[in-house]
Amino acid sequence: MEITRDQFVENLNHDLSLEFTSIVQFVQHIATVTGPEYTSTVEELTVHVGQELEHAKVLAEQIAFLGGIPTTTVEPVAPAADSRAALALDLGLETEQLERYRERVQQAADLSLPDVAEALRPLLTETQEHVRDLQAALGQ
Ligand SMILES: [Fe+2]
Ligand SMILES: [Fe+2]
Question: Which bound ligand lies closest to the C-alpha atom of 54?
Fold first, then answer.
């Protein structure tokens, strides 16, 4: 289905709020996920959180460029029962974001915005890496 440029900007703003959620969630999980089996995962999350900040900045720039106002909304972060549950929540969020970025890159192309699609591409590839890292950490 064809979407309008306004709907596209709305979608980007929801993407942005989910990136803010990632940042909040990862900061909490980096500090609270414990256990020798997750030591390397926590190190990876520390790298990821810097990339999420970069993703948020890219999205805010593209939203403003398209005439929108970048959101400051953070989606609520669900509590996790233990370390494994925390990483499962992270995987769920990253998987949702991967689906969203696949759709967003396609929509940018459909709207004849190849420059925006290009700007979003690193978010797509890095989000896939985050999904793969978390799948590996959870033995999936
Ligand atoms: Fe991200
Ligand atoms: Fe991510």
Answer: 1
Q: Which domains does the chain have, with CATH numbers?
A: 5-137 (1.20.1260.10)
What tokens were used for 71? 């959101």
Ligand 2 centroid to residue 99 C-alpha, Å: 12
Span 40-64, pLDDT tens digits: 999 999 999 999 999 999 999 999 9
- Three-state secondary-structure class, residue 138: coil
- Tell me the ligand closest to 16's alpha carbon: 1
Output the CA 133–ligand 1 centroid distance in Å.
Answer: 13
Yes or no: say if 20 and 74 are a contact pair by the CB < 8 Å rule.
Answer: yes
pTM over 0.85: yes
Distance 1 CA to ligand 1 centre (A): 25
